[in-house]
Every structure is written in C-alpha cells, then in structure tokens.
Design a protein that fits this description.
single chain; Rossmann fold; binds adenosine-5'-triphosphate; about 270 residues; 11 strands; binds magnesium ion; globular; 11 helices; six-stranded mixed sheet; alpha/beta
Length: about 270
C-alpha cells in the first residue's frame, strides 16, 4: 500500500500555569505511517494526546518539533499559497468529538455545507450544489427539508454531528480524521455512520483515522490499532494482535477497564 501520511518525531509541548510553569508533553516523539485506504484506530485514555496529534495533522496546532508529510509534502513547511492550503483542506478533513464547536451559532447550518461545496469547486447556489447537499444529508439519514435553513441551536448534537459527516461526504477527502465521531449518536445511527466510513474507504480509498475510547469498536472496524499513552505510541498492530494479545502493560490495563469486552474475548 502507498504511504499517504507520515509523521516524523512529532512533538507538542504545552506550557501553561499562571503562578507555576506547567509543562506538558502532549505528543512525544511520535512517528507513524498511514497508508492509502486503511482504517486506523487511535486509542488511549483521556489526556494521552490523541486530539493533539490529530490537530497537528490538520494544521490547527503547530508542532513544537518534528515533521508531517502528506503525499510527500511537508505540511508545516511546504504549504505557502492559498492554493496549497485549499489542496490540503480538501484532502485532509476532520469530524470532531464536539459538533457544537464546528458551527457558528449566528449562521444557518447550510453555511458549512456551502463552504464544502466551494472547496470542491461547486457553486452552492447552482442546482447541482443543491442536489449534492440534499444527497449528502440523505446519506447520513437526515431529511434535507427539515434540516436546511435551521440554526445550530435548533438541532440536536447528534444531528449536528451527522451534518459534519455529510460535509466530509461532500468533500471526500483522502484522509479523514474522526475524533470520537459517533459517541453522541444512538446505536442505529452509529452503525449507519460506520457503514458510510466503510463506503468512503471502499469506493474512494479514503484513509480513516478513528479516535475512540471504544475498544470494541476499534477491534471491529480497524485494519490497525495504535495505542497512545502519555503522548507516545506504545503499541501498534492488527486488532487481533493489540486487543487479543497485547504486549504493552498499558494496553493490558486499558483492556482490563473494559470488563465485558474482555470477558467476551478471553
Ligand atoms: N491547548 C492546550 N493547552 C495546554 N494543555 C493542553 C492543551 N490541549 C491539550 N492539552 C493537554 O495535552 C494533553 C493531551 O490532551 P489531548 O486533548 O490531546 O488528549 P486526548 O487523548 O485527546 O484526550 P480525550 O480522550 O479526553 O479526548 C492533556 O494533558 C491536555 O491537558
Ligand atoms: Mg481528545
């Protein structure tokens, strides 16, 4: 499989604290490779650095040191023009844990879908634009007439989350970073969304990084699992290897905290 994205010794240090300086190495010397078309789950306890890693890949947070290469281009050093950034936004897209943060409360939800259309060169006011938006909403199980024209506060968290997934569906990125994308959804919707991710991968060869606390889900959907602990990738491998035969002490601890899952599989 061809390499899509590579991080080399990626590190992010946060310095906070008012009276006393507190230094946190949120991501510590992480080197990973993502290949085209694979689904990779990134698991690890709260605060282990998963979102920070994703944000650096998305160019939302500048690394303290290290590099990220996407299709061979250095993401933080080689992208300069608006065209370069547009190329990157189109190819690397995210669905985040908290959908509220992705909407501006003063604008109708249509806006995020219009922006997606503009990114792929479709006029939002054209009949084609309308068709693409309606189709994308239907794909995630939303009724276009009941969704379009609403403000974020008029919809539920789960509905907003689905709109963001429909946005990803419109953009069809090469890399989709999904940070707890289904934790707000009910079980049946969740199944449907996971199916969508699978369709994206199968039809378009999209690489998906799935950040989750749900080890059962990670086991079920991934080709590969990365386990993060205190900013480092401590274990990686196939779901069978990582979940059924974990080597690292931390992975074993993580599995112990999922008693039913553990019972079922051991
Ligand atoms: N903007 C920030 N300023 C200071 N510290 C931060 C900032 N963002 C994250 N951190 C710290 O970096 C560490 C990693 O946080 P991160 O959000 O990446 O963890 P996570 O694995 O995504 O956790 P969760 O599973 O709860 O989402 C934590 O100790 C967190 O407190
Ligand atoms: Mg997080």
């Amino acid at each position: 499989m061809r390499i899509l994205l590579e991080t080399k010794s990626l590190t992010k240090v946060f310095e906070t604290g008012f009276f006393k300086r507190i230094v946190v190495k949120a991501v510590d010397d992480v080197s990973i490779i993502l290949s085209e078309g694979e689904i990779v789950s990134l698991v690890g306890q709260s605060g282990s650095g998963k979102t920070t890693l994703a944000k650096m890949i998305l160019r939302l947070l500048e690394p303290t040191s290290g590099d990220i290469f996407f299709q061979g281009r250095n993401v933080w050093k080689d992208l300069k023009t608006l065209e370069d950034f547009k190329w990157y936004w189109k190819n690397v897209h995210a669905v985040f844990q908290n959908p509220y943060a992705s909407f501006n409360p003063f604008y109708k939800i249509d806006r995020v879908l219009h922006q997606a259309l503009m990114l792929i060169g479709i006029d939002p006011d054209s009949p084609e634009g309308d068709r693409v938006i309606r189709e994308a909403l239907e794909v995630v199980g939303l009724r276009p007439d009941e969704t379009l024209g609403k403000y974020p506060h008029q919809l539920s968290g789960g509905q907003l989350q689905r709109i963001l997934i429909s946005r990803a569906w419109i953009i069809k990125p090469k890399l989709l970073l999904a940070d707890e994308p289904v934790s707000m959804l009910d079980v049946s919707t969740r199944g449907k969304i996971l199916e969508l991710f699978d369709i994206l991968r199968k039809n378009l060869g999209t690489t998906i990084v799935f950040i989750t606390h749900d080890l059962g889900l990670a086991y079920a959907i991934s080709d590969r699992i990365l386990v993060m602990y205190k900013g480092k990738i401590v274990e990686e491998g196939s779901p069978d290897k990582v979940i059924l035969n974990p080597e690292h002490e931390y992975t074993k601890e993580l599995l112990k905290s999922v008693p039913t899952l553990y019972k079922k599989w051991s």
